[in-house]
Batch of 2 targets.
Target 1
Amino acid sequence: MGRSPCCEKAHTNKGAWTKEEDQRLVAYIKAHGEGCWRSLPKAAGLLRCGKSCRLRWINYLRPDLKRGNFTEEEDELIIKLHELLGNKWSLIAGRLPGRTDNEIKNYWNTHIKRKLLARGMDPHTHRPLNAVAAAAMPQQLRAVHERHFAAAAQAAGGHHLQPQQQDHLAALSSCSAEPACSHSSDDEPAGSATPPPPSRRHLSIDLNLSISLAPYQQPGDDPAAVKQEAASTASHTHNATTSTSAVCLCLNRLGFQRPGEGCRCGAAAASSSVPMQQQQQQQQASTQRMFRFTAPLEGGGL
DNA sequence: AATACCATCAACCGCGCGCTA
DNA sequence: ATAGCGCGCGGTTGATGGTAT
């Protein structure tokens, strides 16, 4: 199907925003709230495209934005989340209060990429740049590595994984295919022959992730409904693998717009019978809640 | 002082997804 | 079932400021 332009481009301003435009946008959103970006420019008296207004608000004008440099903790968190999620900047941003996807994306491209390269890491794969050596990792060494990781997960408590889930989790960790753990900090050159205890290596940053079997089922859930939902969830993640196992990432403010989106969170999806106003209130509250994010594991299932 | 080069980041663009008529 | 719309996302671009020569 054809696609209509997002707005009338002939009569819109482009480029940097003026102070007056900012003030108009802020005043309008304060009065009427976010949303309806397409009609907002006209209503607010702005000669801007709706998308441009949205971007300006989200990336620059929102009152809850944290300005200033990224901390070392934020750096490490971004690296870890990128390792898990890839270039899903909005999801990563959901884990960093006050930071926007655009900001993180820019920061990644200008700072963190270089930082990882300096560590001898590939910023895309989070593996050592010497991938040939990594591929030749002896099976025994790999097994030892994975055992370390599983033990650490157990020691961390709360996550009782099936052996194959442990394998999957280990596979998610770049360490699983590395001759030596390369999650080195600046004072630890990559390629050290003896991997330090995984409990420190892998769990030094609490990502608040939980592992569970998909679909996430609450007591009292109708099994048929759960089954149906599992199918729907799989179809919008990675084209429905045959696997039923999933990594369920319980992320605070992961980026979902509605309760229940992406997964059956304990916070519960808003019922369609709930009045619109109540749903909106729930939606607002939900941004401060925990959500679960499901994605099928690589390479099949249990 | 002038110029070139580089780094940063705000903003734009195109596309995909979900919703609805 | 399908077309159209609105929104959000990720990649890219371009303006600007800083630094090196």
Target 2
Amino acid sequence: MEFSQAKNKFIQSWGALGSQWGINKTMAQIHAFLMISPESVSMEEIMDELKISRGNASMNLRSLIDWGIVYKDFKQGERKEFFYAEKDLDELAIKISRERTKREIKPALKVLKEVSAIDANATEKEKHFKTQTCALYNFVSKADNAIEKITEYNDNWLSKLLKRLLT
Amino acid sequence: MEFSQAKNKFIQSWGALGSQWGINKTMAQIHAFLMISPESVSMEEIMDELKISRGNASMNLRSLIDWGIVYKDFKQGERKEFFYAEKDLDELAIKISRERTKREIKPALKVLKEVSAIDANATEKEKHFKTQTCALYNFVSKADNAIEKITEYNDNWLSKLLKRLLT
DNA sequence: TTAAACTTTCAAAAAATATTGAAAGTTTAT
DNA sequence: ATAAACTTTCAATATTTTTTGAAAGTTTAA
């Protein structure tokens, strides 16, 4: 396979994968493109490579920056902004995990805590509801703690985890 | 909070959470409803509770069954089908993890293997592409193995994991 | 201050995704 | 074999999400 083919395949696949994870396709594609760019890249270049509009590029770059996985680079003597991706994969995974925890796990826990607090004396249905939502709360809490622990020492956490699991 | 309020809140929140994960809202809501139903439930009841059409119910129930997290129940003397959810959370998480691995991680690994195989002698860009995609391949492989290991012994894997991490 | 070189915003348009509902299909009872 | 009681399918429709592009906003240089 040629480089340009491989590059396209990588960007397209990353975009498709992103969609399945509730991340918009363009955002994932921009990230893919930045991941494989050795130098930081201007908005113009991104628009050109991915064939997207300026507005689209601007908004998705902003999202990536909000997620903390893309940074701005101000080059000496250049007026325009350049962008580069967090390339350390341990760091990338930690940032994504922290962000998703904040956006999804914490709110889910809040809801579970609330709804599991009903007093369930009356019917079988109510008792079962309470049992299940309490169990879910405990499970999600544990998962949350586990993720926290795993990524606590950011340096090489995945290798460390694997080692511990294999002993 | 009253039971019926709590029930609604739970179903709605679970649906919203599903959307963020690339799972369709109705599918997540049906799952939520089945999770809190002590008895298995007919399609009619699901349509009624969630205010959805027969077609929608049918298709999403099928998806849930394909994922292996909802089962059919044929009741004595009843012609219609009833449905119930996998309620053991360890088992549920394992099934979801296996399914997503199969659908997403394996294909991603395949692409990464392919594109990282280019020979990158010419430019800086090509070298960097190779470096990055190889690194990604390794990282994703490790993550895949870790998940495999963690869920290997399905019984109470999350608690076991937490214990190991805390020592 | 002005204007050039940029970036951001957001209403409108396009694209993607989910939902409906009725026709077609299936199963079971008689 | 017929019909009643169901479920599935899928073209049409509705909804949601993404994308565009031009106007408004910002920054820098002269």
